[in-house]
Amino acid sequence: MFKSILGLEETQEIAGLNVYFNGGWIMAAVLIAAAAALLVYLYRSESRVTGARRGVMMVCQGLALLMLVTVLIEPMAQIQLVEPYRRTVLVLIDSSTSMLIEDPRTTPADVGEAAAVLGKRPLDHQVDDQNVDNVRQEIGPVSRFALTQAALSHADIDLANKLNEDYQVRFFSFGDQLRAEGGANDPVGWLKDHQVTGKTSPIGAAVEEAVARHAGQEIAGVVVISDFAWAKGRDPIQTARKLKIQGIPVYPVAVGLPKPPDVILRKVIAPEVVFKGDNVPIRVQIESHGFAGNTVELILEIDGESTVSQQIELENGLQFAELKFVPKRESGSVQLDVSVSTLTGETSEENNSTSHAVQIIDEKIKVLYIEGLPRWEYRYLRWVLLRDPRLEVTFLMTKGDPALAASSPRHLARFPQVAKDAFKYDLIILGDVPATFFNDTQMELMEDLVKSRAGSLLMVAGPMSAPGSYGETPIAEMLPVKLGNGQWDSLNVGPVVTAAGRESSVTTLSPSPETNDRIWANIRPMYLPRLDGAKPGATILLSTPKEAEQIRDYPLVAWQRYGTGKSMFVATEDLWRMRLEVGDRYHAKFWGQAIQFLTLSRLLGKNKQITIETDRRTYSAGEQVQVFANVLTQSFEPVIQESYSVILDVAGVSDSAAEMRLEPVPNSPGLYSGIHLAGEDGTYQLRTLPPDAEVSNRVDFVVKTVPLEDRETAAQVDVARQIAKQSGGESLRLAELGSLPEKLGSEEPLSKEVRMQIDLWDKPVLFVLFVLFAGVEWFFRRRENLV
Among 201, 359, 461, 600, which has the highest number of CB atoms less than 10 A from its own CB? Predict the structure, then answer.
């Protein structure tokens, strides 16, 4: 009764009570004394009323006045409560479209689990090889989401009711966004009509958001039911580590097969820019499971027209196939679409094709190769350069036959002294040549070629002069490495491909990472200069093994941007050793790829006063497009201002132009960058505002989205296990969901102390009592005709 008056719940126990008055005790005493005096004054003269009746009237009037005084002095109560509570369990269910995949289950274990969850067999029933086909036909095709629905409605699993005994349970669904589905009253009901439409599975973000929504509550655990084909957003394993710090274990339930029968075209490995007439290799990475020995047709279409095809015998796991095409256009972009024929029984047909955009150019790369003595690397590299039809090569030998330049149009006697002659080269390869060979004017021309004219410099180190003699020259500023003390070391180790090197076309000699590593590791021994590391803006493509490094991350092959151009440093003259047993195959490929990488910006017209670039040419919706603009004056000096704006529009869509603001890049005068979030599929163009249009280039990029939900059919069981391990939880199967309360542990009754402040003067009972007592007194007063 008392708890009801105070507005408390029956489960709340009062541990302490303190009453005080807002008006203070003095005011309370004065009002009570005044009420008593009024009471005495009113009834002293009422002699006609008998003693007993007068006593009742006095008591009622006194109590009515007491109720009024109570309201006036505003009594308050400070209460200490002890109330029980239950910890919370969050259950997140994946509602992305990959959960609609109907896994072709074939093994007794997979078929048995599906039959048990669907209620066709007891949960502990084992299916053997003899009756697996019968059970598979009995359960029929069933999606991952349907299995989830069946598990939550299974009478023996009974997850919601079991958890509700000791915990507060909150259900969520997540696809493109997290959606709260409320408590555990009817999880089967909302799942029954739930729409599975999400195009992504942001598992990490969904878990973090669900936990954040229950901040301040004790969370006993998080259950995530998904195929864990994580598509984007925060890394769920990193999220799991954060939750472990908070003491919140995650119990992932992986739904689906880790290797369903399927054929997937993972990616196309091909250059983004090619030369007219090139015999361009198109390497295709294929992953298949369950179809070993089957033959599929691999088809290459160029701008929608089928041109090349070949038969491929499938292997379980990853394999590579190679197609080739010869660009016939003079210039422009072509779309390469690669596909494989569909086999009966595949999990999905959406992942049997992929595409790649290629730009064609018809112009030779002009190279000037300056070398001292004809060392081994020069001898082999010379023939590589001469055989490459894309190159127009000129040689300058600082030592050797002085009459060579007069008798051969391919040779120069000296480095150009005037800008017109120097600036015609796209790339200068600088070998083991002393810095004293060049005068100040020639050094300045080389620097200006790279810095302002989008040319490139490539130094191949040599023990006589390069890079040791260039310490106080502009060349040292241009190189991506910090020069050391001039000493050299001989190391019996091979190069190691860095993370950046794996992503670079320069150092990719084979589509297989293992083969690529093995090719580079065979280059040994190496004779290397001592360096003080790479410069802050440099990218290291090849290094040396950790145990062999004099410094951390030795820049064996490194590059950096320098003004509008690029510079690259190759620290060894022993790359010719990769010719062992295979000839020019990889040696020529590396040098060809390096030269193309260094010179394409200039060939594509990006040697203008203002140049725009993107980090790639093809994106999917939601990916970040990194945009750069190098802005120079008419004299090719950096433009310093607060920002620089470019125009982004969609090809073929009128009124689509929008202004994009780029911010200055720290420590890179004249360079501005910004990020555009790729939207709808289409071809996009970046260009400058009209005043700069004549002195700038334009850049096209393509957005073509194939949702990962449609491409990735395998349930990522390893991701689920890592989430469990990193969070301190446990990975479960659907049929094991009923054991979750035991995993969480028996929950002892929990309670917490709460302090509350309650207004007593405004309780309805005071007004009811006032009316009651005043009414009774008024009744007797009327009866005795006192009014």
Answer: 201
